[in-house]
Amino acid sequence: MVSFHILQSYDPGEDILRRTHADAFTKMAVLNELSSLNLVTLRFHHDHPELATSMNINTKLTYLELIFYGTEEKISIYSLIPVLRVCTALRQLNVIIKGTKPEDNHITNTSNLLSMNEHESSTISPLKILDLQIWIQFDIRSLNSILRCVPSLEEFCVTVLNDNMNAPFMDLLINGHNWQRLLTSYMPNMKKFDFLMTFLIGDKSLDSTAILHSFNYFQRQYDSWHMAVSRWQILQEFASYLSFELLEIPQLFQNIYNSVFTHSNQNDSHEYVTNLSSLIDLSTVSTLEFKHTNNLTRSYVVPHVLLACVNVTELFMHTSLFFSSGFIDNSELLLAFDRITQLHLSSNHAYLSPKHGSKIVERFPSLTHIEMNVYSLDCSIPLVEIFVGGLKMLKHLAMRFSHEGLIDDAISRDHIIEKRRQLFGLNRNDEYKVIVKIEEHNTLYIWIL
Q1: N or C terminus of the chain: which is more exposed, having fewer CB within 10 Å?
Q2: Closest alpha carbon to 67 in 47, 49, 40
Q3: Between 114 and 427, where is the model more confident?
Q4: d(CA 144, CA 217)
Q5: Any idea where the domains of the chain sit in the sequence?
Q6: Any residues with CB less than 8 A from the CB of 315 and at least 6 apart, and which?
Q7: How far apart, in whole angstroms, are the C-alpha atoms of residue 2 and residue 62?
Q8: pTM over 0.90
Q9: Which CATH fold topology does 1-229 show?
Q10: What is the band of 395 on the pLDDT scale with cuts at 50, 70, 90?
Q11: Residue 341: which pLDDT band, with cuts at 50, 70 and 90?
Q12: Where in 278-361 does DSSP place strands (E)?
């Protein structure tokens, strides 16, 4: 066996491993000198104390992903050093560092952050790629000890997320001169540097222009460097106002999956999109998903987001939001609708009438792939007729239903073939590609390839 992976939730409350089992997995996968494993993922919340005391050396492991989770008396940025010391063949290391009591982070002892495990900093590792997510108090100066151990590092991705970051630490992190000194001193082979920092800063005054200018070195040295600073007002009562996923986005932002906006004023929609655009080049987004919430005021901003993402071809939405008048009947979105080739509609198997199907055909003529939930198989029959007969480029249709109802012979392979032949000139040599079947008693699939 050369690969071993345990993938649990990123939420510590959903971990199901006992501590004894977590200890055992760490020892077996990382500290076993006779292990043949090359690739290991230990995605469970644990402080891995055995790594700090082990004298074993692992010369086989080249990829490791793990989470350090515990009180800040037990885990810190320096928890990486024993990993680098033990795993002498590592080429890629992905680490998440989380504290168990983030509300107490403000009392962390600064001197401990700067000196912990300093005696191990003589470790030298052949590591090439380091992806580091930090959810605890973090002093950028502590990276000196880490980067000194990895002189061959070529790619460094660092994410800092903390709601209660000490002001002195935050000031150091947002000063680009500190990053310049750090990377030029310890990363002579650097090819890629990605970072994201998110803080709750309250009423603290920040000079965004000064922050940007402090990173001028990177702008001058690297043609593809992009830097953005945004300050958003986040109110607790509107925390679920809008949450949507952006997929296939640039490397710098590939870990940003949820953007949360506040307020419900229609006039603020442009401002929301402007804020998002300062973080992400929306022209690179090809897949857009709007997650379902009970707050319908988010329908104000959804059209503006779709208009701003000019290259979106795949759309995920809840049925109620999709068929709201502010979206499906919005004439300003017709060009955006025409670009959509894949549509995914989710609901609790709602009833969709032929009128709904006709609107989809009229507004989205370029669709090749449709997935949706309907109440019953009976309800799907008129929709299938509309989609098969109205969408020339349709290739795949999947309709999930919660009740079988009275199954009608109208949904048959021969019927689909004849309809496509009459309306769109389906070639007889391509008829063998048409497939119609029901799987698991709850999903109708139609392929027209």
Answers
A1: N
A2: 47
A3: 427
A4: 19
A5: 1-229
A6: 287, 288, 289, 306, 340, 342, 343, 344
A7: 10
A8: no
A9: 3.80.10
A10: very high
A11: very high
A12: 287-290, 314-318, 342-346
